[in-house]
Amino acid sequence: MMDPVNPMFVTFKAIVDPAQAREYNRLGRRLNVSDTVLSLAVLSILLFTGWTMRLRDLALHLSGQRFSIAVFFYVVMFAAIMKVAGFYLELRMFRLEHRFHLTDQKIGAWLWDQAKAWLLGIAFASVAAEVVYFFIRQCGETWWIWSWAVFVLFFVMMAQLAPVLLLPLFYKFNPLDDVELKGRLERMSQKAGVRVRGVYEWKLSEKSKKANAALTGLGATRRILLADTLLNGYTKDEIEAVLAHELGHHVHQHIVWGIIVQSLVSLSVFYVTSQVLLYVLHGSEWFQSYFNDLHDFADLPVLLLTAGLCSIIITPFLNAYSRFNERQADEYCWSAIPDVTPYISAMEKLEEQNLAERDPDLWVEWLFHSHPSLGRRLEAAKAYGLRRK
Question: Residue 330 belongs to what domain range?
């Protein structure tokens, strides 16, 4: 149909019910906020009841007083408690996706994904805890600087390895069969100065009916991922427009700047955490009766509580930065494609398929959204198209 405001734009007629989209997103936000509050509550309970010391003593007993092994046992028990505490909310989220017909995934497959994610989380958490307490033992009060440096290196490494090591644990990927589309996307990437090492079909439909695309990896692992839910419902021009947006992030070096920003943010969080830990150990008589010394891993809830509260404070500002980046990527997209119409129709299809909320309240967008609202993006695209004409 013709757009009623700007007849020059041919748009996709979305049939999504705005009230339904608002309800889905409202319930999703409520579950996410509940999960955050629950996590902080469990950490507080472990800390203020002294149960974290009981876990530490049990871990030391099971490990035969071997410190590194004890840290691992503590992390496993800690992760089990957090998983059990939050499992009901995770199940509620799974049921929410089914309620709004956004997935056909069976409960067994979902449970298997949950198990894999939990085991992977234990592996990462164990390594992180070992690193932190190693530097606490070796470096004392300057532990946070060295831990931060290792975390930054690990973050960069995982950004490179995730497409080949982590994502295949949860999704299937096949080289894209559509030679014409593959060629178009590769030429667009070359024009943007981005060298990709393959275009893959992402079997997202096994877990979700939502559509998505991504340009992932760094260097030799950089690849284009196109969800089968995108390939099966969008024109080649629309898919090209979606990829052009992703390429915009690389053109504007958002990945490099993102690493820099995240590094500076994490540095400040590590510093604040170190100061809180020092206060707990030296400025509070109540806590001094609980913890033995700085490298007592029973104080892990202190570290996580502090980091979690810092994250809550910082996230709205990071979201604002992300929305700025998304606007830049959109502008590159519009300049890279012959006409903005495929972008507009793709966004409207995504609105329906992903049950996106077109015009959320401003406070919701500021607090929770890493992307500008769909309504703002569409209006900006139409205005750009009119200027181009």
Answer: 18-171+252-388
CA distance 381 to 201: 28
Tell me, yes or no, whether 230 lies in a domain: no
Residues 6+ apart with CB under 8 A from 114: 90
- Residue 23: left if φ>0, alpha if ψ -120 to 50, beta else—which one? alpha
C-beta of residue 343 within 8 angstroms of C-beta of residue 234? no
Nearest residue to 12 (alpha-carbon basis) of 233, 212, 205, 240: 233
On whether residue 89 sits in a domain, the answer given is yes
d(CA 244, CA 384): 15
Q: Is the pTM of this model over 0.90?
A: no
Euclidean distance between CA atoms 238 and 240, whole angstroms: 5
Please give the C-alpha separations between residue 102 and each of 46, 87, 263, 265, 304, in angstroms, as whole numbers.
Answer: 36, 20, 35, 34, 33
Check: CB of residue 367 under 8 Å from CB of residue 319: yes
pLDDT in tens, 175-198: 999 999 999 999 999 999 998 989
Mean pLDDT confidence for 119-126:
95
Are the beta carbons of 354 and 211 closer than 8 angstroms? yes
Phi, then psi, of 228 in degrees rounded to 5: -60, -25
CA distances from 377 to 54, 91, 191, 230, 351 (A): 52, 33, 24, 20, 12
* Total of domains in the chain: 1
Using alpha carbons, select from 273, 279, 304, 297 the residue that is nearest to residue 52: 297
Residue 158 included in any domain: yes
Residue 31, token pair as written in the block: 């579950």
